[in-house]
Write a structure and sequence with these properties.
There is one protein chain. It contains 24 helices and 22 strands. With about 675 residues, the chain is of the alpha+beta class. It is elongated, with a radius of gyration of 31 Å.
């Protein structure tokens, strides 16, 4: 049965699913249990049937049989929460809502209100069951992602030509095996395309509706569907521990981390339970001194139920679990409830340029050379030191360099200086390649300035301290960048570009995207300092994908990593990771978080309002025990149902629907 809803120190973590063990082997595909086979629902339902039977026997003037039915319903419903409440009291020395309900039920029986006690047990056990079911449903929506992994996979054995094909369970896949993926089949684990070319439908994993073209050397993720030609894929991750299972593990762990609103509910609920007991005791003492003791004891029992903060305690966890699970279904992985809370307040977005606003497919457009150096010499030198760099510009340089292949020896003693460039030894000579702000272009200054004015990023190359050339690289703006910026601005969210690139290139691209606030020529520490300053005036999200973005991601109110291509450092520093490339997911994610934020606020407000209204009505005797139980548990069901709406918002949200905040000052 449910963890007691008023156990603020553990309820959220347990209900949301404790952090899974290392690896993903323990994560099994979700198999929802029909409600008619779920003991959590059947037992409260049986209590309700017995209670209704008692009412029927009362109507038929069979009071003795009615009492038996009431007792049976009372014991059936109480079995779902009384043992846990007693265990919590004596083992953990902690108070809980279950204890309040247990005291109320026992008191009602002692006073002869067996019917009311049966109603309390039925309604409270039903509310607890619905809470459990809601949490299971919220978690199940996420774990259903695991159903995207097929049960079997085809592997090739018998040599490089793959002369023998065999079907094996997907869980038995191991790195190094050659997997055969036919048209219409879903990929069972991560890998790299060995032979063939095709288009993969990744919508179920990343939320991107357009199939992605892949060819030899491209990485492919578990859960993708092959839409056309046969692919041979070298497996890079075990079938039980791939990108899809890691996403599920990450989000389930995130659901166990409380957000600010969850902690607010905790702070309210923790003193409220003993406060309710003291209030009930005060009502009893007042009755004993100034009125009819039996009447005031009855009212004290009603107060115990009326002031129970159960709806308050469950309102936030249900919403957070639902919202984080919903976000994962359109390619947004939120690492904690606290991060989700902060996302709902974002009023400013700071964007990295290279690889985030741009297509991440740069190409070399110009090569400048100094006297005595050739274009091939310059490109070969810079490609050698950039060979293992993950920066998008490095890929463009390697693609343009003649004779540079995986089998070609690269430079050694290579070091990457984030925000500056790369150095290494090639043929005994020290090669440095990096920003003109780091390596002065010297005689090439005029040519470098001209390339930058055209919106190109320039990499200056030196050999043993002497500049031998400069490479101009152009990375076009992503097609959806302008729409993304427009959607954010229309929602009252300020947009700022941060880049280590030169000011001329940055301004040219920012103008295309519709961004007026640009900060260029920034080192990683400059980005972090600037983001911290922005966050001090308004909640700020930083979006980036490179190693040099990691300090800024950590300094932001919310750090968002473009996870599909981002560096490990960026993803580790971020609070949120995107599994896809589509920038339109940014306003969708913020829309989702804002809507969830509103639902949490609604639930907390409703929960407190119910307590504020019911307590005085209970003390004055306006409402009976049965009436208070009914209203209180109805409110509990209402906040659960409202919280579950957060799971649906992510799929429906579109940039144009982002609720606007006033522009920050």
């Amino acid at each position: 049965m449910s963890v007691e809803c008023c156990a603020p120190d553990t309820a959220t973590a347990t209900a949301a699913g404790a952090a899974p063990p290392e690896g993903s082997q323990a994560l099994a595909p979700h198999r929802p249990t029909p409600w008619w086979r779920d003991a959590q629902i059947i037992v409260p339902a049986a209590s309700g049937v017995l209670f209704l039977a008692g009412l029927s026997f009362d109507a038929l003037a069979l009071p003795a049989v009615a009492v038996v039915a009431y007792w049976a319903g009372l014991l059936t419903g109480a079995a779902t929460f009384v043992p846990g409440a007693v265990r919590r009291l004596f083992v953990r020395r902690a108070l809980g809502i279950g204890l309040l309900m247990t005291i109320s039920a026992i008191g009602a029986v002692l006073l002869g209100y067996v019917q009311e006690a049966a109603a309390l047990a039925f309604l409270y056990s039903l509310a607890e069951a619905l809470e459990d079911r809601a949490m299971d449903r919220a978690r199940g929506g996420l774990r259903a992602l695991l159903d995207l992994v097929p049960e079997t996979a085809t592997i090739a054995t018998g040599g490089p030509a793959g002369s023998t094909h065999s079907r094996i369970p997907a869980t038995e896949l191991q790195p190094g095996q050659l997997l055969i993926l036919g048209p219409g089949e879903r990929l069972a684990t991560d890998g790299i395309v060995a032979t063939g070319s095709s288009a993969l439908d990744t919508s179920a994993v990343t939320g991107e509706s357009i199939p992605v073209s892949v060819g030899v050397g491209d990485r492919v993720a578990a859960g993708s569907i092959n839409t056309s030609s046969v692919l041979e894929i070298t497996v890079t991750a075990a079938g039980t521990d791939n990108s899809l299972t890691q996403i599920v593990a990450l989000v389930e762990q995130a659901q166990a981390v409380k957000g600010e609103r969850a902690r607010l509910a905790d702070r309210i609920a923790r003193p409220l339970v003993p406060g309710v007991l003291l209030l009930a005791l005060a009502v009893v003492v007042f009755g004993a001194l100034f009125g009819d003791p039996e009447m005031w004891i009855t009212r004290a029992l009603v107060v115990l139920v009326a002031a129970s903060p159960c709806a308050l305690a469950i309102s936030v966890p249900v919403t957070v679990v639902s919202a984080i699970g919903g976000a994962s279904r359109f390619g947004v992985i939120v690492k904690s409830g606290a991060a989700f809370e902060r996302m709902g307040t974002i009023r400013r977005v700071a964007l990295d340029k290279t690889g985030t606003l741009t297509r991440n497919a740069p190409s070399v457009t110009a090569v400048l050379t100094s006297a005595g150096a050739t274009e091939a010499e310059v490109l070969t030198a810079v490609a050698a030191v950039e060979r293992h760099s993950t920066h998008p510009l490095a890929a463009a340089i390697r693609a343009a360099a003649p004779g540079i292949a995986d089998s070609t020896p690269g430079a050694y003693d290579v070091a990457e200086l984030p925000g500056k460039g790369m150095t290494g030894l090639l043929g005994g000579q020290r090669i440095a390649a990096g920003s003109p702000r780091w390596i002065a272009p010297g005689a090439l200054s005029a040519g470098v300035a001209e390339l930058e004015a055209l919106g190109q990023t320039v990499v200056v190359v030196s050999r043993d301290g002497t500049v031998i050339g400069a490479v101009g690289i152009r990375d076009e703006l992503r097609d959806e960048a302008k729409d993304m910026v427009s959607a954010l601005r229309s929602a009252g969210i300020d947009v700022t570009m941060l880049t280590g690139d030169n000011a001329r290139t940055a301004r040219a691209l920012a103008e295309q995207a519709g961004i007026s606030s640009v900060h260029a020529e920034l080192r990683p520490e400059d980005k972090a300092r600037l983001v911290e300053e922005l966050a001090s005036t308004a909640p700020t999200a930083m979006i980036g994908d490179g190693i040099n973005d990691a300090p800024a991601l950590a300094a932001a109110s919310v750090g968002i990593a473009m996870g599909a291509t981002g560096s490990d450092a960026a993803i580790e520093s971020a609070d949120v990771a995107f599994t896809g490339h589509d920038l339109r997911r940014i306003p969708e994610a913020l829309a989702h978080a804002r809507a969830g934020h509103r639902i949490i606020t609604q639930n907390i407000g409703l929960s407190l309002a119910i307590i504020a209204v019911l307590v005085p009505l209970a003390i004055t005797g306006v409402l009976s025990l049965a009436a208070v139980v009914f209203v209180h548990e109805l409110a509990e069901v209402a906040v659960i149902a409202n919280g579950l709406r957060a799971a649906r918002i992510g799929r429906a949200a579109r940039p144009a629907r982002i609720p606007a905040f006033p522009s920050p000052s």
